[in-house]
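**Backbone description:**
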Amino acid sequence: MTRSPRFSVPPSLADLDEMARAALASLPAELATHCTDLVVQIEEFPDPEVQEAMGLESPFDLLGLYHGVSLDQKSLGDLPLGPDMVFLYRSPLLDYWIETGEDLGRLLRHVLIHEIGHHFGFSDEEMATIEARA
C-alpha cells in the first residue's frame, strides 16, 4: 500500500506525480499489463470544458477523470485518437485530504485505481459493488 510522505507544505504537482507513479508501479501485474500505455497527468483543477461537460457546481467536485476509450470498447481496427489518460486533480485531492484526514497516498491510489477501472470499462456502480465486496 502506498503511504504518503509527511509534508510540511502542501504537496506540489510534482509531489503528487511522484506519488501517482509509485501507486501505478504498485498495481498487481494482471492490472499493470493493461496500463502500459495509460498516461497519468496531474493537473491543478479540471479545465472549464470538463467542468461544464460534467455539470460540476465547483471544480473541487472532481478528484480524477479517465479520458479515452475503455478496453472493452476498443477494436484493433480503430485509429487511436490519442493516448488513454487519467487526470488527477491536485487542489480537489488536497482539499479532500485535509477535510477527511485520510492518508494522502491511500487517497491518491484509490482515485487512480477508480479511474483505471473506467479504463477497463467498469461503471461507477460496478466499481462501488467491487469496493463494497473488498
The mean pLDDT is 87.
